[in-house]
Amino acid sequence: MTLHFLTAPRKVAMIIFLLLVTFLLESQSSSADDLTPIENNIPPSPKENFNEREFQTNNKFKVDFKPKGNRNQEASAGKVPLNFRDQIVGGSKAKKGQFPWQVLVTIDEKYTCGGSLIDPIWVLTAAHCCYGFNTFMASVGLVNRTINEPSRVDVDVQSVHIHPKYDSDFLTADICLLKLQKALDTSGPFVTTVRLPKISDATISLVKVTGTISGWGKTSDESGSSDVLKYVPRTVIDNKECAKVYGSTTVNGNLLCITNKDKQGTCQGDSGGPFVRTETDNKFTQIGLVSFGSSVSCVTYPSGFTRVSAYIGWISDVTGLKMRN
Ligand SMILES: *[C@@H]1O[C@H](CO)[C@@H](O)[C@H](O)[C@H]1NC(C)=O
C-alpha cells in the first residue's frame, strides 16, 4: 500500500471501492511486492468541507493522555551508528544504515507498508495498513527490497494493536502497533530504534519544522514504487492549508501536513512510514507517520501524517514505554 488517497470524506465510499478493486487487480498480478497506488480522478475540492470554526475547534495540539509506561526507550534510540554526510539531500536513494529504524511491513504476503522500529519488539505503522488484514511480517536492515541483502532480517508479527479510535472513513487515529514474535538485535549498525517525541512536543505546532520521510513508495506521480529505500526532506505546513484541501473534519490537531509543491519528482514514502527530524542532540525523533495523500497528484497537494506526539499516551499504554518529558 503506497499511500491512502483521500479527497473529501463523503467520497470515502468510492475510495474504499477503488481500494478493493486495486487489491483484486493486484492479487492477480505476478509481482507481489509492488502495489499500484490507488488512483481516482476526483480532484480535491478546495474549501468544500472547510469550516473555520470547526477547524479552530479541532486544531488543538495535545497529548492524548498522560503516558504511564515505565520502561525507557533504548539509550541508542534515534542515533545513526554510521556517518552520512548527505543526510538532507532531496529525493535520494538511502544507503544501508542511513535509516536503521525503517521497517518494511509485508501484509497478507501481498501488500507493503512502511513502519518504524521504536523498540526491539515494537513497530509503529498506520492503522490503515493493519485494519482488515491477517498476516504481517516486518523486515529491517535492508535498502533494496528485491534482493536478500545479508543484513536483512525478517520477523513475523505476533500481535496487532490498532488504535481503538481508528475510523477508516475519516482516517482518525491512523496509527497501529505491531508486536514482533521476537526482539530484534538493535546493536546496529543497520538496525536501531528511532526516538519517540517528548511529552512536551505534543503541544507545539511543528509548522516550518523540516524533517525527512523515508520509504519504498513511488517517487513521482508517474513512477511506480521503488526497489530501494528513498528519502526526501520536507517541511511541515500550517494545518489550515491542508484543511482547505481535505476539509476541517479530516484535518485536526492530531495530524501534521507537509507540502510537496516546491519539489519536483518526489513523493512520500509508503503508508505508515516515518517522518523524522533531528533534535539539538543530533538524535532522530519520529514526529509523523504517512497517512494520506491526494488522489490526483502527490506533487501538487499536501500530504497528511499522523502526529506521533498526539498518541504517546496510547503508545506508552500498549508498549509499556516511558516517554520523555
Ligand atoms: C535492486 O536489486 C535488483 C536485483 O539485483 C537490481 O536489479 C536493481 O537494480 C537494484 N536496485 C537498485 C536501485 O539498486
Residue windows where pLDDT falls under 50 for at least 5 positions = 5-47
What structural class do helix, strand and pairing data support? alpha+beta
Sequence of strands across the biggest β-sheet: 9-10-11-14-13-12
| H-E string | EHHEEEEEEEEEHEEEEH
* Residue fraction in strands: 15-25%
Q: Total number of β-strand segments?
A: 14
Biggest sheet overview = 6 strands, antiparallel, barrel
Computed Rg: 18 Å
- Ligands, deduplicated: 2-acetamido-2-deoxy-beta-D-glucopyranose
Rounded to the nearest angstrom, the distance between the terminal CA atoms is: 34 Å
Individual helix count: 4
- Name the helicity range: 10-25%
Identify the overall geometry. Answer: globular
The overall pLDDT, averaged over residues, is: 81
Describe this structure as you would to a colleague.
The chain is of the alpha+beta class and about 325 residues long. It has helices spanning about 10-30, 50-60, 240-245, 310-320; strands spanning about 5, 90-95, 100-105, 110-120, 120-125, 135-140, 155-160, 175-180, 210-215, 230-235, 255-260, 275-280, 285-295, 305. The strands form two sheets. It has a six-stranded antiparallel beta barrel with strand order 9-10-11-14-13-12. Strands 3-4-5-8-7-6 form a six-stranded antiparallel beta barrel. The protein is globular. Residues about 5-45 have low confidence and may be disordered. The structure holds 2-acetamido-2-deoxy-beta-D-glucopyranose. 2-acetamido-2-deoxy-beta-D-glucopyranose binds near residues 144, 146 and 227.
